[in-house]
Amino acid sequence: MNGFLIYAGKRFLQFLFVVITGITLAFLIAHFSPVDPVEQTVSLLTSFGSTDPQAVEILRQSLRELYGTGGPLLDQYFTFWGRVLTGDFGPSLSSFPTPVMTVIGRALPWTVGLLTLATIIAWIIGNLLGALAGYFRNSRLLKLAGIVIMALQPIPTYIIGLSLVILFGFIWPILPISDGAQVNLAPAFNWAFISSVIEHGILPALTLVLVGIGGWFISMRSLVSNIVTDDHVIYAELGGVRSSRIFSHYVARNAMLPQVTGLALSLGNVFGGAVIVEFVFNYPGIGKLLISGIYSGDYSLVLGVTTIAIIAVASAVFVIDIIYPLIDPRVKLG
Amino acid sequence: MFKILRDLLRYNKEFLFGTILILIIVGLIVSSFFSPYDETAIYVVIPDMPPSTEFWFGTTSRGQDVFWQIGASLRNTLIFGIIVAVISRLVALVVGLVSGYIGGRTDQVIMGINDTLGALPNIPILLLLVFVLRDQMTWSMLAIVAALLGWTHDSRLIRSVALSLRHREFTRHAVFSGMRTSQILIREHLPYVMPIVFFTTMNNLIWAIGLEVTLSILGFSDINRPTVGGMIYWANAHSAMVAGVWWWIAFPMLFVVILFLGLFMLAMSVNEYIDPRSRLARMGA
After folding, report:
1. Is B244 exposed, middle or buried, given 0-12, 13-18 or 19+ CB atoms closer than 10 A?
2. Which of A157-171, A310-324, B7-21 is modeled with the greatest confidence?
3. Model confidence at A26, in pLDDT bands (50, 70, 90)?
């Protein structure tokens, strides 16, 4: 148990280090930008027609504090951290005067729901098919499945997403290709809304699954085909253990463990896929928010989303790191 | 070298298939040097013409010939990928070899930094940078930033090989015969990690090109320079799908797929060649 605490402590330090580095990087990028975000933002806002001088002055103050254009660098840096820790990124420009955190809070459930579901589905299907393909190496059906999956794997997310849009939106229009739910439905816990969310989620999720499945398939297949030639498997085969039992108890279980680490690593890249998928399907999540923030020049929103993304990804990796030794006793806890 | 290539072509279906796909791409790129139009010029041909014998892949709503645009786009996209791959390979090599050879505390510190950078989500940071720099974000600048983001995983792979080389007999011989650290790394250890470098280059190239396509489709790169993603960006901006100008978006998509499949097949077959275990499995041993 003591070993686990030391292990967890080390992982936690690493987690803190990642978050601090990431946010410092975000701060520095924002700080050394050649454009003055405050004046640019203010002028953009006033050109939208918001003429209340008092509101503009408050915005200017808040922006100055956020981007730190006054005072020594170190002070600005700590002010920025105060903002991050209190979750206060000031008002969003594109939906002024709603706070950035409120806007992000609205989008977050969409992204988290979509990505968690799609990542897990891709992980399960990829690993299952990969394990089967590695074990039953002579099956024609599995070979064919392998070719299809591997051909899909390197294709960029956008291309797969757009192909699905063309297929199910224009050629065979059976599924919605835009938004997260029917626009006129208010979010509520009733069947009409939930079924609409599911319906709208199918294509974006399918895109993410198609993109994600290949990596799992390939690594699982090679892991399994290595284990199949291990002594303990050959021994079990000679001993007459049923092949279904060898597959599930001797082979798949041992090959699963590295795949769990892979899951943690993939979470770091999942956000990149979300951005483009949400762009293609106009899905109301964080990625779409980030893109529209960039298009509309919404500085605080972009900074807020980046910071949240850094913290979210680091936390996810941390949590899986902590769970890992509970699954795999071979991990050195020390 | 030629013998290896010949063997690969003869016995490895993936390598053959990948080579054919890449040759198609290379052919288009070479042809782009003979393009009758300037690659950045617009309204040089009649807009919105469907594919015909005169315009093989049709023309865009901006009055560009899709065929010549694709050649130039593939060239620019590939150059971007190669620049990113080469720079990030150099960083990964230096970090991996030095960290693995020196070991101990230095190794721990370097790998700590390495893992931290690797755990940061690339896309949001890249987008923040693109957003902040806006017009100053040139094509080459983007390539350098992408290169600086894409080496952490590979340096860990290289380090793991370097760690095992450190304790080999020949390393000790080299040390006792008075070779400098840099000499040992370059002359003695580099050849051993070259297969990994070669293999990861392919993957990095795929990643970098995917990144370029993504950013360009979103309109976050230099959109006046023709790239594959840039073509799709302009097609979207003119709602080509809705307007029925399908060839404007279909051909870039098709060639992106060909390019990616080709690179992927090559990466796979080279990996298989380098890792003898999978080669044995294929032979049925």
Report:
1. exposed
2. A157-171
3. confident
Per-residue pLDDT for A334 more than 50? no
- Confidence (pLDDT) at B86: 94
- Residue B79 to chain A, least CA–CA distance (Å): 18
- Three-state SS for B59? strand
Q: Which amino acid is at B49?
A: M
Mutual angle of helices A140-152 and A191-227, in 10-degree steps? 110
Q: Cβ distance A334 to A3 under 8 Å?
A: yes
| Mean pLDDT along residues B97-118 | 87
Contacts by B209-213, CB closer than 8 A, 24 or more apart: B209/B77, B209/B78, B209/B80, B209/B81, B209/B259, B209/B260, B209/B263, B210/A156, B210/A157, B210/B260, B211/B84, B211/B122, B211/B126, B211/B146, B212/B77, B212/B80, B212/B81, B212/B142, B212/B146, B213/A156, B213/A158, B213/B77, B213/B256
Q: What is the three-class DSSP state of B150?
A: coil
Q: Please state the three-class secondary structure of chain A as a single string.
A: CHHHHHHHHHHHHHHHHHHHHHHHHHHHHHHCCCCCHHHHHHHHHHHCCCCCHHHHHHHHHHHHHHHCCCCCHHHHHHHHHHHHHHCCCCECCCCCCCEHHHHHHHHHHHHHHHHHHHHHHHHHHHHHHHHHHHHCCCCHHHHHHHHHHHHHCCCCHHHHHHHHHHHHHHHCCCCCCCCCCCCCCCCCCCHHHHHHHHHHHHHHHHHHHHHHHHHHHHHHHHHHHHHCCCHHHHHHHHCCCCHHHHHHHHHHHHHHHHHHHHHHHHHHHHHHHHHHHHHHHCCCCHHHHHHHHHHCCCHHHHHHHHHHHHHHHHHHHHHHHHHHHHHCCCCCCC
Element (H, E) at B195: helix B190-217
Residues of B with CB under 8 A from a CB of A: 112, 115-125, 127-134, 136, 206, 210, 213-214, 217-218, 220, 232, 241, 249, 253, 256-257, 260-261, 263-264, 268, 277-278, 281
Residues A253, A257, A259, CA angle at the centre, nearest 5°? 110
Determine the residue among A158, A219, A299, A303 to mutate to test chain B binding: the one whose Cβ has the most chain B Cβ atoms within 10 Å.
A158
- ipTM, two decimals, is 0.79
Residue B211: what residue type?
L
- Rounded Cα distance, A120 and A123, in Å: 5
